[in-house]
Amino acid sequence: MELAFIHKVAEWTGTTTDVAEALTEATLRALSQRISGGEAADLADRAPDELRPYLTKAQEEPEPFPYEEFIRRVAESVNVDLATAEAGVAAVLHALRDVVGYRQFGDAVAQLPKNLASLAMGGTSRE
Fold this sequence. Notes:
Elements: H1 3-13, H2 17-34, H3 37-46, H4 67-78, H5 82-100, H6 102-109, H7 114-120
Helix pairs in contact: 1-2, 1-5, 2-4, 2-5, 3-6, 4-5, 5-6
């Protein structure tokens, strides 16, 4: 997986690179499930090669699930607590925004629940 991306996530979450890599994979997989296939493909086109498989999905329709479910899926996938998963989701989404560009990222994030979109764009989940 792209080292610079993973190092950012590890630094921002205070975790090891192994945990950061797992958080990255779980977050991108959950994101691709939550947004449309077209938006996932657009993100994948701009993402580093190593991250693209996690943003690929077979169907166009997004799977609607709330913020709490997004965080729970990441936590269970990585086997971390909810706070670590939430910090990881924020870090991965911020790093993804940096690599794909604000406009493209904003288009994808517009499909997320308000609190998850806020977390992705730099706010907190409580807004």
